[in-house]
């Protein structure tokens, strides 16, 4: 993304990523904290978010069990070579400079009309049950945050949800597995990028590695056991006409420890037009982005074509 990667280590700035306690009875304070973090950082942690620790631990367990399977079993849900879609298991572990170092499992989890269970592991056997339960909870959390962010734009509570496609908004599970890498300075788990989706809802294991770019420096996102990390992506940047920040981030790998993460991506329906919400555009606040359908936006980003 044009940011120099001089080293994998990060500085330690005096400020730290905001932590928002969603159980605070003062709704106005919570809303202000979520909006401020989304404007200034594009990332924040939420605690007391309403998703049980037990469910998160079960999600991590089934994910780890899948990646511990022999390669032949994982390939049963592999992304097909001829597929233009992203769903399925992929593997990319090479000791090559600037190559990524990660296994991934991708599949849609909502709405029911777009699910393809061919890409959901059958082993471990409880995988589907756990992910379906986690989907319901994540969807509640996502819609609560989108509501707060809509009101932060001075709009109705459901404005951003509608802008992403309403009940046809897509949710995608991605499990990232970053095995120990004997040459961690050669590879990143994920290169620097902003997400082409609206928002990511992330849990990880205890091994750090996520870094964000702010104030001209990279720094580490600290692991907080009880927290879920929220990142803002390109779609919310565009829908909010630039008010909410899409965070530039990357993932480093560890020489000795396996790192795993479980982001849920909140993604606009492919046919939705991703541009500033019309109510935001005035003579004093002109549109910063051209309207473009979500599928065309992703295509142009994927092939590094100009969007605006």
TrEMBL record:
Residues 169-268 form the Fe2OG dioxygenase domain. Gene3D superfamilies: B-lactam Antibiotic, Isopenicillin N Synthase, Chain. Keywords: Iron, Metal-binding, Oxidoreductase. InterPro entries: DIOX_N, IPNS-like_FE2OG_OXY, IPNS-like_sf, Oxoglu/Fe-dep_dioxygenase_dom, Plant_2OG-oxidoreductases. It holds the Pfam family DIOX_N. One of its GO terms (molecular function) is metal ion binding. Residues 1-21 are annotated as: Disordered. Belongs to the iron/ascorbate-dependent oxidoreductase family. This is Fe2OG dioxygenase domain-containing protein. It comes from Microthlaspi erraticum.
């Amino acid at each position: 993304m044009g940011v120099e990667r001089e080293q994998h280590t990060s500085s330690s700035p005096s400020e730290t990523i905001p932590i928002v306690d969603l159980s605070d009875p003062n709704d106005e304070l919570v809303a202000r904290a979520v909006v401020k973090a989304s404007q200034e950082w594009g990332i924040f942690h939420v605690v007391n978010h309403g998703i049980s620790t037990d469910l998160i631990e079960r999600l991590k367990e089934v994910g780890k069990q899948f990646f511990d399977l022999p390669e032949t079993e994982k390939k049963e849900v592999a992304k097909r070579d001829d597929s233009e879609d992203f769903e399925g298991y992929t593997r990319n572990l090479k000791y090559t400079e600037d190559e990524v170092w990660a296994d991934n499992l991708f599949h849609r989890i909502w709405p029911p009309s777009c699910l393809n269970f061919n890409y959901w592991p059958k082993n471990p056997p409880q995988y589907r049950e756990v992910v379906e339960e986690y989907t319901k909870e994540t969807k509640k959390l996502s819609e609560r945050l989108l509501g707060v962010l809509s009101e932060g734009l001075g709009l109705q509570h459901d404005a951003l949800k509608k802008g992403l496609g309403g009940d046809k908004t897509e949710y995608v599970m991605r499990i990232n597995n970053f095995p120990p890498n004997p040459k961690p300075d050669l590879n990143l788990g994920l290169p620097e990028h902003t997400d082409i989706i609206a928002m990511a809802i992330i849990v990880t294991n205890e091994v750090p590695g996520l870094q964000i770019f702010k104030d001209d420096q990279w720094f580490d996102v600290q692991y907080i056991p009880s927290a879920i990390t929220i990142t803002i992506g390109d779609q919310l940047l565009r829908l909010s006409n630039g008010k909410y920040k899409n965070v530039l981030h990357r993932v480093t790998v560890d020489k000795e420890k396996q790192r795993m993460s479980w982001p849920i991506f909140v993604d606009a329906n492919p046919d939705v037009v991703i541009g500033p919400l019309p109510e935001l555009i005035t003579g004093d606040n002109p549109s910063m982005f051209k309207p473009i359908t979500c599928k065309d936006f992703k295509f142009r980003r994927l092939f590094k074509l100009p969007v605006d």
